[in-house]
Amino acid sequence: MREALKLVITLGLVAAISGGMLGLFYNYTMPIVEARQMSEMIEKGFKGVLPDAHSFSPVTGGQGEQPEGVTEIYEGLDERGERIGIAFEAIGQGFEGPITMAIGVRPDTQTVVGVKILSHTETPGMGAKIEEEDFTLQFQEKSLSDPFVVGKDIDGITAATISSKAVAGTVGDKARQVLSYLGYEVAAPISPEPTEEATAGEGTPVEESGEQAGKPVEFNEEVAQELLPGAAEFIETALDGIKCFEAIDEDGQQVGLVLEAGGEGFGGPVTMAVAVDPEAEKILGIKILSHNETPGLGSRIEEEEFLRQFEGKSLSDSFAIGEDVDGITAATISSEAVAKGAAEKARQVIRLYK
Amino acid sequence: MQKHLDDVVRGLFRENPTFRMLIGMCPPLAVTTSAESGLIMGLATTAVLICSSTIISLFKKLIPQQVRIPAYIVIIATFVTMIDLVLAALVPAVHKILGIFVPLIVVNCLILGRAEAFASRMPVSRAITDGLGMGLGFTWALTFIGCIRELLGAGTLFGATVFGDGFVAWRIMQLPPGAFLTMGLIVFTLNLVGNLRARQLQKAARNQMKVVGKEA
Amino acid sequence: MAVARNRGEGIYQLTLITSPPPHIHAAISVDRIVHLTGASLLPGVIWLIYLFGWQALRVMVLSIGGAVLTEMAVMKLRGKEVTVQDGTAVLTGLILAFTLAPTVPSWIVVLGAVIAITIGKQIFGGTGSNPFNPAVVGRVFLGVAFPDQLNNWIPPHSVGTVIQSPLELWAAGEALPGYRELLAGSTGSFMGDFAVVVLLLGGLILVLRGYVDWRVPLGVLGTAVLFMAAVGQDPAWHLLTGGVILGAFYLAGDPVTTPVTPWGRLVFGIGVGLCLGIIRYYGQNPDAIFFAVLFMNGLVPLLNRLLRIRRKGAVACGKR
């Protein structure tokens, strides 16, 4: 008994002394670390991505919840103390681990001012090249209405596509999310027509907080023309109550059918125009008309990268996400709404048409 | 005094923890992508080793046999955390390079090994010299591996360009296989040299014997 | 004797071993295997020189020369009798050349041959004692160390226009070359891929002569076919590119680095095929075959232990 007590007391003493020492050290070093981290963030990160700013101050509070993956939001102020831009720290998932970056945006012009990689663990010589200016300078003065897709409007790094995609996607998504969180109206990515002058001033509230569903497009001949640019004329018909355009080329030959389809997405109904070839029973193209999906996730059904995979797809395929259709990560329901909706309506119309 | 000096030299070469005893192998393989990080990791480990060896040697009589391992671990962990905090506060750049590997010094078996095998049986002064020798031996080993990997993997040494633009980096050296290859080749070379020397000594001894035999 | 060496304790008792591996082919000398294997590659050599001219010749000469000179130098240094005339180094060099593109810079070819012979072979005791296929060691080293220099593929008779290899196109989801392009070799890949037909014929001859155990290539190819079919890929297409034929017969089939028992060899082959499928399909890595062979080579001692021949009626010592 005494022996056991001795053991307990010894260990307890060792632990207590250790705890006390650590407490002392912690109290002494933490303020230094925190102060340094803050000034470092501003010096190394935010000044680089918002060079015109005279000073920075933290922004607190916005509409809804702070976007996930965004850790610090600062506003850049000019000499008179007026806000000229937003600088924030965001974390993206790279190939090896998280990538932390500082991103500067200007709400008035809706552009990214600069991007700087703060920390990462990507493979040296490959993914690690995301820190280089050759890569990050591409984001300078980039409009938020761009798609931010590697291989399209962003040049990726050879042999490091995942790392490049992580940065490009994070910059685009988080910049839009942060601006809408702070109450700015944000242009949706890849708008088909040039976006109207983004005149949103400071503090202009967005109608639906946080939401930024793509502008609904009406189903008309223009849309049909966009999907089937080769057709000379479109004849409006209705098959089983489904509005269709029959596409006819210059010789009067029928070249395709454009129909309106819909599906139940995550945030509400998704409507789209689907071009089909009734002879070959193939889909020729899809265009999203309206949706109310989560910005940055489900809203990506609008992206060409997703929609392009349906081009030339046979209607006898299963149209199942993960099987013959690549879904959008973390947005399976939205992806499914498009795939299933398009296939179902197209099959229905073709059956009637024949 | 002679013993103390011997403690230091022994750790540096004859019983070098990394190249001869092959203990505490995680840092030599994981943090040696550059000479600088190898050096810093080695020095941080040395500091922990000296501090923990001193304390353990001082209190060796007070810590009961049955709970010595948990007690040693707590002492080592305390010093590691302290050094981690100090590095973060004073030399953040260095702290950033080492990252997760500083807390992992706790589980470096070199430190617990020396505590158990040496510090807990020896007077404080010798525990310190042993810690110094082992630590510095560990440090030069890490720095050496780091030099080779940095030189071949990036063409630089301590960040300074050594080879010109025409140099093609051997990317494998900066990746985990590079650590194993470098480590293996160094140990191979050391053993080779050691064996050759032993053979020479044997030969010399045999000749000596012959001479002695003839004289007799 | 062969089994004893692989029980783990043998490694410290090398002096006790009387017969050097490859153990099971006691009746066939190393020379015979090497000569026939080399001869089976010759048509491929000629075909490649026809396709790529001096570029192909350069890579082969440098690779073989590097391997032979390294072997001689290392054996001298080790104080052993130089047995370079057995031709194993020549074969290693030639097979390594088959895994490289004709565009690879000369010094990288030589370095690969040096690594193959030193780290892949001599460090383990030379001919017959290497656990890993030396050519695969050299190729994997180069592939990881110099991806930029290694992956510059050119089609035959070209003047240096670099194109994407079939597997790179596949990984990027682009339009793929058909069987005809693959068989006729109008794509861009490493040299072995241009001689698939020749390698297949050569490999079959080796199998018929019993120098390569049929279980290994059967396991590799069969498993690869099943795997690719299971994940909805075209199995035939995947066999024709990325060195699968070369790997199944010449890399995985190497008798030195395969298990000693028939069952062991079958499991080994299946393992290579499975690793190939996983690394290629899920990892989208064009060099999957090399990693697959390297990985399974590492498991050979384990397979030897688990699947050793048990004599009927024999009673294990100390039991029952």
Textual characterization of the structure:
The complex is a heterotrimer of chains A (354), B (216) and C (320). Helices cover 30% and strands 25% of the residues of chain A. Chain A is elongated, with a radius of gyration of 26 Å. Chain A is α+β, with helices and mostly antiparallel strands and 354 residues long. Chain A contains 6 helices and 12 strands. Chain A folds into 2 domains: 55-181, no CATH class; 221-353, no CATH class. Residues 191-213 of chain A have low confidence and may be disordered. Chain B has a two-stranded antiparallel ribbon with strand order 1-2. In chain B, β1 and β2 (160-161) form a beta hairpin. Chain B has one domain. The mean pLDDT of chain B is 88. Chain C has 15 helices and no strands. Chain C has a single domain, classed as Orthogonal Bundle (Ammonium transporter fold). Residues 1-18 of chain C have low confidence and may be disordered. Chain C is mostly helical. Chains in contact: A-B, B-C. The A-B interface holds A 6-7, 10-11, 14-15, 18, 21-22, 25-26, 28-30, 32-33, 36, 40, 119, 123-126 and B 33, 62-64, 66-67, 70-71, 74-75, 77-78, 81-82, 85-86, 88-90, 92, 96, 153-154, 169, 171, 174-175.
The sequence of SSEs of chain C as H and E is HHHHHHHHHHHHHHH
Biggest sheet overview of chain C:
none
Strand percent estimate of chain A: 15-25%
Q: How far apart lie the N and C ends of chain A?
A: 93 Å
Question: What is the CATH architecture annotation of chain C?
Answer: Orthogonal Bundle
Give the CA-based shape of chain C: globular
Element-level helix/strand string of chain A? HEEEEEHEHHEEEEEHEH
| Mean pLDDT over all positions of chain A | 80
Q: What is the gyration radius of chain A calculated from CA atoms?
A: 26 Å
What is the general shape of chain A?
Answer: elongated
Calculate the mean pLDDT score of chain C and round it. Answer: 84
By DSSP (H or I, 4+ residues per run), the number of helices of chain A equals: 6
Q: Report the total helices of chain C.
A: 15
With strands numbered from the N-terminus, the spatial order across the biggest sheet of chain A is: 1-2-3-4-5-6
Largest sheet of chain A: 6 strands, antiparallel
Uncertain spans of chain C, ≥5 residues at pLDDT below 50? 1-18
Output the CATH topology of chain C. Ammonium transporter fold
**Helix- and strand-based class of chain C?**
mainly alpha
